[in-house]
Write a structure and sequence with these properties.
Rossmann fold, alpha/beta, globular, about 55% helix
């Protein structure tokens, strides 16, 4: 068997001659005074309402983030013509999903009778094993993961009788195939698949308060705004979407994950007070440059130029804020509020780690769940699509400085050091 290829952020970018030509033509058209695809708030709202045929957003909460984003896109993101088209599609799609959700619930008020009970929610930083753990939790026959195709277009909620034939599955497959053709190294850095479990950060974007926007474009002013933003309505829409999905396909529990929750633990637990929370941990010296590399790779498809040092500084700040808020919450809540999982433990013994997680909450793994985990690990080995290379120096980061900055976090949770 040949060795898996390895990639770093320099290998990423727009691997499409027609789209590179579009970007070049877009630059020329701007020079001639032509207007690029609009990212102004009114244009985005009008487009979402035209596409959906609906007008009611349910609450007036999107104007402020749209205006913050419009400024950031104009002054910080350095978007290409294709980047403007892609980001416009992301935001119009989010607003359209929200319009359809609000309309669906008005026409199906029984959605409000649904209750989200004891959801599994993984809250660790990116690149700490959250994806692997969420995939394994999603194999529980009594739990339901949020699949990538459903997160992208949840309304109307899929129905059990026609689930396997839902055309949105094939549409999502085509989108992911296109993404991977446009930017092939991304597949080695993060798993994509229409029916794979995904981050529920995709539901927070319905209120335009979502870390996922920052992974697509360099918008630090939006990031600073988001750190202080009221997240209550974003989480209300998060819960309402899960209820709508659950109303057509019942489940005992949801299996969810996104690092975004670590910034918002108080709001998360106000919405889901009986959640079974799992916090994954890994040496920050590995995490911080890996996250910077992933974001450079993602943004490179949409930006004329990506500054890895600026991206490294931005995400170093964001990740440290996340663990600082987590430490503060931990000090107030006591150590039993969640189950802590070390990345090294999870990779070395996935099944044993899963057993310990369930035991922490007084539960046990079903034999069928254990068998599914074994089958999954045999069929989807790590690095199946290649290896992700990264080095702290590429992003203006120094390992010892990272270690010092995160010392309180590493001590509190006994996070083992990894070889550099």
């Amino acid at each position: 068997m040949s060795a898996a290829p390895s990639y770093d952020f320099r290998d990423a970018g727009l691997h499409s001659r027609p789209l590179r030509t579009l970007n070049a033509l877009g630059g020329a058209l701007r020079w001639l005074g032509a207007r690029p695809p609009s990212l102004d708030p009114d244009a985005l709202l009008d487009a979402a309402r035209r596409r959906s045929g609906l007008a009611d957003l349910g609450a007036d909460t999107v104007r402020e983030p749209l205006e913050v984003l419009a400024h950031a896109f104009r002054h910080e993101a350095n978007l290409t013509t294709f980047g403007r088209i892609a980001l416009r599609g992301l935001l119009v799609g989010a607003l359209e999903n929200r319009l359809r959700l609000v309309d669906w619930v008005k026409r199906h008020p029984e959605v409000h009778d649904e209750t989200i009970v004891r959801p599994w929610i993984i809250v660790g930083l990116p690149r700490t094993g959250t994806t692997l753990l969420s995939l394994l939790l999603g194999l529980d026959p009594t739990a339901r993961p949020l699949e990538q195709w459903q997160a992208g277009q949840p309304i109307p909620p899929p129905e059990l009788a026609t689930l396997r034939e839902d055309p949105r599955i094939e549409a999502a497959r085509r989108r992911f195939d296109q993404l991977q053709r446009l930017n092939p190294p991304i597949r080695a850095m993060h798993p994509f698949g229409a029916t794979l479990a995904t981050e529920c950060v995709t539901l927070l974007i319905f209120d335009l308060r979502s870390l996922s926007i920052e992974t697509q474009a360099f918008v630090p002013s939006y990031g600073r705004w988001l750190e202080q933003a009221d997240m209550s309505h974003a989480y209300a829409l998060h819960e309402l979407t899960l209820k709508a999905l659950q109303s057509r396909i019942p489940t005992d529990a949801w299996s969810l994950k996104t690092p975004n929750h670590l910034w918002c633990l108080d709001e998360l637990l106000r919405r889901y007070p009986d959640a079974r929370l799992v916090w994954t941990h890994r040496d920050p010296v590995k995490v911080v440059p890996s996250v910077a590399s992933l974001n450079c790779a993602l943004q490179s498809a949409f930006a004329r130029r990506v500054d890895p040092v600026a991206v490294g500084a931005d995400w170093s700040h964001k990740l440290h804020l996340a663990v600082s808020r987590g430490l503060d919450f931990d000090a107030r809540a006591g150590r039993e509020w969640c189950c802590h999982v070390q990345y090294a433990e999870l990779v070395a013994d996935p099944l044993g780690t899963l057993r310990r997680v369930y035991a922490h909450f007084g539960d046990g793994l079903l034999p069928l769940h254990e068998r599914r985990v074994g089958a999954w690990m045999r069929e989807r080995p790590q690095h199946v699509h290649g290896r992700h290379r990264y080095a702290a120096a590429d992003f203006g980061l120094a390992p010892e400085a990272i270690r010092e900055r995160y010392a309180d976090y590493s001590r509190r949770f006994d996070v083992p050091r990894e070889d550099a």
